[in-house]
Specification:
Radius of gyration: 22 Å
Strand content: 35-45%
Shape: globular
Largest sheet: 5 strands, mixed
Strand order of the largest sheet: 7-3-4-13-14
Structural class: alpha+beta
């Protein structure tokens, strides 16, 4: 099935999803949902996890025949009123856009918090969570506000969206839920997911390739391995340069 985005008024996204799920024939589409993300906020000296809309004014839907789906929706009186009023834009997603979104969201269509470790100087040394496999899309971090600005495209249009992060100090605290825009039942307390360990450890002499950052695509040799970072030597300008990179930014050469 191909993926499409339907643009509507902010605040009416879930109303539109419920209408489609209730009225549209089940065999003319696959999934239909609103995307959300978690963000950690400090409210009156209490850390709360809020679940907010990732793309205000957008819903996502999959189908095999967009023209048929559009006609089916127009046949629904309530939907026809929305379409006629011009509050409805039906746009296909480009190749890879839907795959990216589905990879960073969980089955409830929520981008969960990404655990971020730093060196104390706002240099990220390790990621565990949705942002781990798309770190090249991160434009900047707002550590104080606990989110990253992520650059991506939806229907060919570039957007900067927020995705929540959680730091080591936050993991030690008890967290509760705050504002929840998603139509989901939540427990009284937020359970912090355990950070996943790096895929493997490295040892001196390992030949590796750098998979992201300034030296992406370069072959290198491990000179020193620490807990979360690795010092590698990269050949540039006829000389060897030593650089320290996050452990998840390199892979062993086959």
């Amino acid at each position: 099935m191909l993926w499409y985005v339907i643009q509507t008024y902010t605040g009416r996204e879930e109303q539109l999803v419920k209408m489609i799920r209730r009225k549209a024939p089940k065999d003319c589409y696959g999934e239909c949902f609103v995307a959300y993300y978690e963000q950690l906020r400090d409210r009156r000296q209490e850390n709360q996890v809020h679940i907010l809309r990732l793309f205000p004014g957008y819903i996502f839907i999959s189908c095999d025949d967009a023209a048929l789906l559009f006609q089916q929706l127009k046949a629904i009186p309530a939907m026809a009123k929305i379409i006629t009023a011009g509050d409805f834009m039906f746009t296909p997603l480009y190749e890879g856009e839907a795959e990216f979104l589905l990879n960073v969201m969980d089955p409830d269509h929520i981008v969960r918090l990404t655990y971020v470790a730093t060196d104390g100087k706002n240099h990220v040394t390790y990621l565990s969570g949705p942002l781990r496999d798309c770190r090249n899309c991160i434009q900047s971090y707002r550590f104080r506000d606990r989110y990253a600005n992520v650059r991506l495209t939806i229907a060919g249009e570039e957007k900067i969206v927020r995705m929540g992060i959680i730091l080591n100090d936050d993991v030690r605290r008890e967290l509760s839920y705050g504002k929840v825009e998603a139509p989901a039942s939540v427990p009284e307390k937020y359970t912090v997911p355990e950070p996943t360990a790096p895929a493997r450890s490295f040892k001196e002499g390992d030949r590796v390739t750098v998979i992201d950052g300034a030296f992406e695509g370069k072959e290198a040799v491990v000179r020193q391995a620490k807990k979360n970072t690795v010092t590698v030597s990269v050949q540039m300008f006829d000389r060897e340069i030593l650089v320290e990179v996050p452990a998840e930014s390199i892979r062993i050469l086959a």
